[in-house]
Specification:
Strand content: 25-35%
Number of domains: 2
Distance between the termini: 36 Å
Largest sheet: 6 strands, mixed
CATH topology of the largest domain: Rossmann fold
CATH class of the largest domain: Alpha Beta
CATH superfamily of the largest domain: P-loop containing nucleotide triphosphate hydrolases
Helix content: 10-25%
Strand order of the largest sheet: 6-7-8-3-9-10
Bound molecules: adenosine-5'-triphosphate
Length: 373
Amino acid sequence: MAHIQLKNISKTFGNHTALSNLNLDIADGEFFVLLGETGAGKTTTLRMVAGLEKPTEGQVFIDGVDVADWGAAERDVALVLQQYSLYPRYTVRQNLEFPLKPKIRRLPDAEIKDRVARAARTLRIEHLLDRKTDRLSGGEMQRVSIGRAIVRKPRVFLMDEPLSALDAKLREALRTELKNLQMQLGATFLFVTHDQIEAMSMGDKVGVLNHGRIVQTGTPHEIYNNPRDTYVASFVGSPPMNLIDGRLVNDRAVMAPVNFELPLTIGAKTFGGAKTFGGGRTSGATDGRPLVFGIRPEDVYLESGAPVEARVHDVENHGVEKILTLRVGDTMLRATVPATTDVAIEQPVRFAWNPDKVVMFDKGSGVSLRHAG
Ligand SMILES: Nc1ncnc2c1ncn2[C@@H]1O[C@H](COP(=O)(O)OP(=O)(O)OP(=O)(O)O)[C@@H](O)[C@H]1O
């Protein structure tokens, strides 16, 4: 398989900068997800690894070799796209055989048969082998597209939103299958998506791309719990992290514009022993500085006697849990609570949060104080 490195990559189209100084290091056998909104530069990055696009600046390395002069075929990568590129009049078997039959490197018939059979078994499409591809469902077609990549045994799989055209249920099923497949093949995957749930559930590592720049790279756990800036904090997580403006004053967090105070140390008795705030990273140096406080909805909880009073503005039922919108003055804040929580709209409630989980961001730069060092 392969180790992929992108070093100081920039790409401009005319006077539009699609990628700026991008660095990525994808380990051999890693499932790496590039996550970003539309237009962030995901497809451009993928096409550069595939050899379909040349960087304006910087280099792409595969297994330590600069592949600038290698064409797409020499790079030995397989691309799976959102739109399945199958031959509609051909059967599934013929579609799977097709990539193995170019004149220059035609494989022996027995080898072709074996690879097709294995791919079909892995993707559970054996029963479809003799069916024409225009008679398949979307999920089946996408399996065949992935099969066309697998049979080639490429060094790297490049996947450009391969699940986004499928309905929610199928997407979920194929997410698991793709992850299993990657582990089974031990292959290096670069998977591109705008869907943070896909990224968090499949990636060994996730790179968050914003306007052509990598904002943060890390495990899903790191990205979720320790977002580098307010962009990552609000992009990853559903509902997103609550971001509330405020300042630290005498070791208390004063949140504007409602002026409610968050104690930095919350009494051990009432609030479960949590005594520090923001991972213990409070110091005199931050006093008075404008900050943004990030609190995940699941770290907010209702409790009588808790420090802040709010009104319930909205209640969404999500089966096992409810997502509440709480109103404090003009500020809205989301809280994920158990479905058994009995609340009504406009009801007054009191809430607290897990102080260990609060992330403080510099208001000016948006960067987390933990990352700013
Ligand atoms: N061939 C091109 N010519 C001009 N601009 C381009 C070209 N290819 C991409 N761009 C621009 O570069 C930026 C990045 O595009 P890219 O397709 O990589 O984004 P993306 O993150 O994959 O978006 P999406 O999720 O919508 O596919 C966009 O602003 C796009 O319009």
